[in-house]
Amino acid sequence: MRKKYGRAGNSCQAQNKRLDKCCQSRDCPRRGLSHDKSSMKARDTRKKVISVIGGRHCNAEVEQLAHNLGINLAKVVDTLVTGGLQGTMKAVCSGFKAKRGLTIGIIPSYDKKEANEFVDIVIPTGMGLARNVLVVKAADLVIALPGEAGTLSEIAYCLQFGIPVISLGSWDIKGVIKADSIDEVIKQAKRILGGEIKCGKR
Fold it and tell me: Is the model more confident about 38 or about 107?
């Protein structure tokens, strides 16, 4: 026979609000759910992550742009995510790592050796281009550098999931924040991430 949770359920929930603890009453419909506000605080104090997307092939100018971007992003966050391969991904990782930031490469194959040498943590997905969604979803903010269809797909994922994306010389699409310089990217990044600057010294 199904139990009805009228006053007992309401009473139990009220008690949980007072005690700020997980409900263990067998008669409470919210049994097993944490009412502890510390879990929400923990989410608020997680480190911010930025993903940088762009082509695996680029010219010297874009390579230098990506490298300089990496150097400057290390002043904002501790962790950088990319697709882990060559081109803009390698260049931005080299700049970020030069300032002792942690770099994560989410690569399309199962072979860790395909990641560039500036990736600290390699995540081999074996997903092919489908791994693009992971590069995007790992981030609180995405920065797009010049790239082709793969970069465009990642921008589309950003718009689909509501993840803010800044374009620095990349695709100009409605919903994407356009920046004309690295300084502007950094300014926008700080604003979007709530003005939080990473802790610790470099």
Answer: 107
